[in-house]
Hints:
Distance between the termini: 21 Å
Number of strands: 17
Strand content: 35-45%
Cofactor: Zn(2+)
Structural class: alpha+beta
Order of helices and strands: EHHEHEEEEHEEEEHEEEEHEEEH
Protein name: lactoylglutathione lyase
Bound molecules: the ligand C[C@@H](O)C(=O)SC[C@H](NC(=O)CC[C@H](N)C(=O)O)C(=O)NCC(=O)O, zinc ion
GO molecular function: lactoylglutathione lyase activity; metal ion binding
Function: Catalyzes the conversion of hemimercaptal, formed from methylglyoxal and glutathione, to S-lactoylglutathione.
EC number: 4.4.1.5
Radius of gyration: 19 Å
Amino acid sequence: xxxxxxxxxxxxxxxxxxxxxxxxxxxxxxxxxxxxxxxxxxxxxxxxxxxxxxxxxxxxxxxxxxxxxxxxxxxxxxxxxxxxxxxxxxxxxxxxxxxxxxxxxxxxxxxxxxxxxxxxxxxxxxxxxxxxxxxxxxxxxxxxxxxxxxxxxxxxxxxxxxxxxxxxxxxxxxxxxxxxxxxxxxxxxxxxxxxxxxxxxxxxxxxxxxxxxxxxxxxxxxxxxxxxxxxxxxxxxxxxxxxxxxxxxxxxxxxxxxxxxxxxxxxxxxxxxxxxxxxxxxxxxxxxxxxxxxxxxxxxxxxxxxxxxxxxxxxxxx
Length: 318
Ligand SMILES: C[C@@H](O)C(=O)SC[C@H](NC(=O)CC[C@H](N)C(=O)O)C(=O)NCC(=O)O
Ligand SMILES: [Zn+2]
């Protein structure tokens, strides 16, 4: 499942510089600062969620079966548009891209059906996608009327005030409905569970240039969440990292595998990630055949991120 979020931002460069300063890479700093002035001016981030699969270079997607059935949940119940669909028989998979707006300006979801595979283990680490709706109760009624699965009825979140509900798509992926006024980005959260919240916050700040937008401890329910991203929580998609007290390991299953962020230079990004202690799992460079430049890394919890060259990505959309 891919979601793509494009956001003009200039955080990455400054965070990379702070990494370089920290390790005293003065000589590199000179060179990076020059380069980063170019990167800062037009760095754009595309935010995608992908799946675990054989380590192919081609970005893969969270698998799901019965795309038609999933499309119905996403389109008729959650109000997404089917933006494009592609069948790759030679690779034995079909993709469908769904979201609330075009891929070059919105976070969209890419569903993938791998031929003949109709069951995946989502694991315990993946939490949910967040969908902002103006009326949670009304949306839940619509979902019920269409045969969708509601796993938590509408009501204030435990320990808070925001009205939420939870539904599941036919493949068991959880969606949290959050009651919110009109927003340019209804597809507003990716929730992952982490074993050390401070470690996760520092990594996403320093290696990816994200901003800590909000941190909330919920001692009554023994968890803490941190919202991180490149724009305000109510107007853009954010990462929601959840730490459950005392839980340091999660099963990542065989479905969810990566988040991708767009950048203007995958080579410099990979360098910055290495300098900030990230583990590069795919060296920067073009994908065979389509030539889109990517690099990939693991965060301290083992959640994977792919960085995609912004210009190559837009070419893919043409
Ligand atoms: C802020 C909003 O987007 C949330 O997702 S908070 C929802 C809340 N989260 C948790 O409880 C996290 C800890 C939990 N043990 C987990 O690992 O998911 C939630 O799910 N509340 C349930 C409710 O009924 O309010
Ligand atoms: Zn959430």
